[in-house]
Amino acid sequence: MTFEIRGWCPGALRPMASGDGLVLRIRTRNGRLEPGQAQAIADLSWSLGNGMMDLTSRANLQLRGLDARGHGKATAALARLGLLDDSPEAEARRNVILSPFAPQDGTAWQAAEAIARAMTAPDAPQVPGKFGFAVDADPPVLAGTPADIRLRPQAEGWLILPDGGDWALTARDAAQAAGRAVELARWFTQGGVRDGRGRMRDHLRRSPAAPPGAIPLPPSLLSKYPCDRAAGPASADPAGPGPAPNGWLLGFAFGQITARQLTEAAALGPLRLTPWRALLIESASRPQIGGAILDPSDPLLRVHACTGAPGCPQALADVRALARRLAPHLAPGRSLHVSGCAKGCAHQGAASATLVATGPDRFDLIRDGRPGDSVGLAGLAPDRIPPLLR
């Protein structure tokens, strides 16, 4: 089974071709949308796309189903909304996830903004396309969110944590933390980039020596940010649907949201995009959005599924339809990942059960792993799978 690893993610200025047209990824500023911006994006989805959007694990929003003409109109509209970068290169480097619970204009917010400014400047370190930052707030919620460099506030100051490292850098305030995070990215580029690709955890496996000024990672944090990342992120999504410190979280199966749902959400207040493929409506109280998930025990929240066929040209099966059928059979506390090919785009960590399509109606089953790990049962027909999930 073969597939193409592109080594980059779509953006607004550099969309990606898929089975249902162009995919345009909107990288919002600190993951926040004003109601007018969100409504305008919903209108773009209706008029230029296919009315379907994706909430991504990088706290971005993707329009789907655009053609070349629609892409040009969409980028012009995004520029008017203040949601477009100066170049595809700057857009790719501005890969910063902020805790959706971070107060607007607070210290974490300021740190994320400072990193974004530095990474879009002409002298920014030339990191690979998937290289990213995660800026946490208090309480921290991003330990399980994939990132190459993490910033975490402490009682006094900040820690800057490299993914896969057993050390950290320290900073006295948000401005210094942002500066040191960018310098750590620059340090990474001196040996961590090969053929235009590279991730921090892989670099530290090859060259574990820390830069000057690093301190050993405290034991309490080493358990949350282990230096051995072979098993993936250390923790599960920390927040499900329900009340949040600054509003209300809504879940969406597989992170798929429609233009109608986004319109309904925009009418209720500013929005925060989250790395858990959920949507936070600021200051809302149990909003009613048709088709959204309000029940934190809904098994669909523990199911990961990529776009699948026919939306993705590399997918071998309609995995989302299968995932919906399998969700009611998933045992409590268990997770399921259904992937259209062996890339496993929908979920980077391990799942209790991972199904990888090998044909339109055949799947390999991997226990407590991810695509690419040892297969437990091969060539399963869909009707054989439900008993294996209990």
- How many alpha or pi helices? 9
Q: In which order are the strands of the major sheet placed?
A: 6-7-8-9-10-11
Average pLDDT, rounded to a whole number, is 92
Main sheet specs: 6 strands, mixed
Please report the distance between the alpha carbons of the first and last residues.
28 Å
Total DSSP E strands: 21
What is the molecular shape?
globular
State which percent range the strand residues make up. Answer: 15-25%
Instruction: Quickly give the structural class.
Output: alpha+beta
Percent of residues in helices comes to: 10-25%
User: Order of helices and strands, N to C?
Assistant: EEEHEEHHEHEEEEHHEHEEEHEEEHEEEE
Query: Which residue ranges are poorly predicted, with pLDDT under 50 across at least 5 consecutive positions?
Result: 229-236
Radius of gyration: 20 Å
